[in-house]
# Entry
Amino acid sequence: MEYYVHIGFEVHIRLATKTKMFCSCSTEEGEPNTHICPVCLGYPGALPVPNKEAFKYAIKMAKALNGKINKTVIFARKNYFYPDLPKGYQITQHEPPLMEDGYLVLAESGKKIRIIRLHVEEDAAKTLYDSETGRQGENAFLMVDYNRSGVPLAEIVSYPDIHDPDEGVEYLKTLQALARYLGVSEANMEKGEMRADVNISVSTAPDKLGTKVEIKNMNSFKAIHDALEYEIQRQIHALETGETIYQETRMWDEASGKTLVMRRKETSDDYRYFPEPDIPPFELEQEVIDIEPEFDDLHKLYKEVNSWNIDEKKVGFIVYSPEIYKALKYLIEKGVPPKFAVSMYLDEIKGQLEKSGLSLEDRHKDWVVYLHKLISDGKIDNSIAKKIIRKAISQNKEPKEIYEAEFSGPSISEEDIRKTIRDILAKNPDIVQKYKDGKKSVFGFLMGQCMKAFGGKVPAATVKKLLGEELERV
Amino acid sequence: MTIKELRKRFISGELTPLEYMEELLETIRQKERKINAFTHLEKTDTLLKEAELWTEKYKSGEELPPLAGIPVAIKDNIAVKDMPLTCASKILQEFTSPYDATAVRKLKEAGAIIIGKTNLDEFAMGSTTEFSIFGPTHNPVDLERVPGGSSGGSAASVAAGMVPVALGSDTGGSVRQPASFTDTVGIKPSYGMVSRYGLVAFASSLDQIGVLAKNVEDASLIIRVIAGKDKYDATSRELSVKNIFDAFETIDGVKIGVWKELDNHPAEDGVMKVWDDAIMKASKEFQMIPVSLPDIASGIASYYLIAPAEASANLARYDGVRYAWRVLDASTYKEMVKRTRTIGFGKEVKRRIMIGTFALSAGYQDAFYKKAVAMRYRIMQNFEEAFKQVDVILVPTSPKLPWKIGQKMSPSEVYKADLYTIPVNLAGLPAVSIPAGYVDNLPVGIQVIGKYGEDEKVWAVADKLMGLWR
# Structure
């Protein structure tokens, strides 16, 4: 029997505004319950006033998802009780959403995933469970941090166009990278800036959807991948053994590596949506409508990076990392060969920084430009460039300082180099004889002797060339 | 004594804010036990100290803000920083507001002294001020009768002379009907004129802060102080009002509409007699034109779906999680919320939450909530049509005279008593209830209703009519 998997996502992305959606509290992280006010606590008499800045971010995402933009904003109340929902309702765009009928092109495969809608809404507060509050047993409480309450979100709902866990992760990575390229959100899953709920069904016919199961509580790409793998197998097993698959919400349990039933839905939820009477409908301002996103298709980027002829495994990583992509692009435009740029910037600089617990900064791009210039001028070689990087990082200096102090010296004339080489050859007559007899492998030994004598101040390529010539003359 | 006169005396030194405050506190001492207008009174020491401070400032002769030293009472569903904000409900009985409502902030900035919080029907749902955890408020006109509601405490405090002016709130008549019942003036401004920030929401699209006073001038000058667009209320608007102490606009040639269909929905006999007399007196001064408002009687059906629907969401925040009172011995979140709300809300509040929840439910929303909204638009159109012919429209304030406290009435009977006031809220219009006469010593009020944003004109006409009818 063949099984067909349909996966759809509801993704929440935190919009990078400085203040909350309906009050002027900061969206920054902070000690629990420090960025709060009567409005985001749902105090009696407090009223929401929309933060129109949020739409400047949301519109970029909406346009990059290629759908129809609705200029009229109508907020609605979505009613339900939950400890982290201070007003007993969430203020959200219900009908119409900011964008409808869009699509996202996956970065690597180029596949189109259809998007049902994107809408703007407020986040709920954050519930802290026993493990996070440190309270146990008798003292156990559910604690709520309202710093997150009212933070603006864009919710993006896809059609169930995704057919396996890899594709699911590719969808999310593409969406995340898009948000970052657009400057809409940092979209860090670990920080909860991007959260994904998934709908999944397995059926025995390609054009038929199975019973829809929702999975929540996945906080990383790996968790989502694992949860999807598990759930697909669970549902296939159920179909094979004739067990009922219930329409329900399941929770991913990281510890056991299983999805567990959270609640079963006999009927669909009734949120009793109605227009938010505290916020009159309004039209988006022209300056918001006119905002055009600077990136729209990550697949194009993928093809571009692929054409750099670099290690294939690094292409995805670069495309999904806007800062790195932008830096490499800058280097290539400066005439640095892609392979060199990737090896120095990504492997050396980023690698070494991470070992020291540091991260990339803007100035590091220019390190690569500088080192590339030295190499082009024949002043150093790759291995010296790497040495310079290491020293610059460990000594917290600029490569220029390191180079000038340790590797440039008074430049050695070609004649002096030849002289030194000739001295070495004179000291090793038997080795030179072996070379003359056709044992070319001893070249390496001689090369090593020379390099040692120059103390790294003469590029290997130069030494190699001159040593070859001197050997011929002997 | 009007506020203008008070201020004049404060400036001349004929009367000091301290002496005036002492007078009011004496009146409160004598009457409050029988009337029960207040849910909270500021400490006497604090009030006297504040009044003394203003007294000193008046003596110094410096320029003082317009309401310097004028005491004001605030309905207990409007936030005053560091005072209780109970909405007369068990669920908020332990709640103290950490902030000022915008209207209160403006009053304080104008120099007013907040004397205390006044009684109301729980969450402003009612028209008698009987349904309060603080017990019923008694009508100063006749202590055995209700003062109307839900701003009954504010109306009674003004009627009894305990305070010159008081803020109320009007969702379906809650300022105007108590004004009518207590022989006072009640202004309900155009929707959006006064910020709702800090007014505990009952039905957000209908709620408006209003004022109760002894005369139109006092009530209107308070509105002039608290009006204006507020960055904390997205529904607030900048509607034109005069400077606080300016005279009313001239009303020469104003055409007054008289609601034609009143005969199909008449008030009780005594009220109709006062009404007929009043119209006759008015017709000697004004051009009176009968106008048709054919659908406004359907306002009750529309209102009693829209208001509960909005209330069902507005009152969802009282779940016991964040503030005020909750049951302490529940073992789960769900049980805590359920029992807190079951015990914390009174019967009428729960009735409306149930009606509203039902009206919004999937499968019923089209038949109830959406139909009610459609009817609301029709009522708006009724008024728009009528205002093509006239500047203001007269309608009685209440079909009933103030009834006895404890009188048994079914909910629908009580709801029907809001027949004349509700359409004004549905259409968002400005209105004033003014005393028009008496039946067996019981007061009868009549409403002057105006075009949206023409509050000043309504007040000017109301002031003139009140002069004719008194």
The mean pLDDT of chain B is 97.
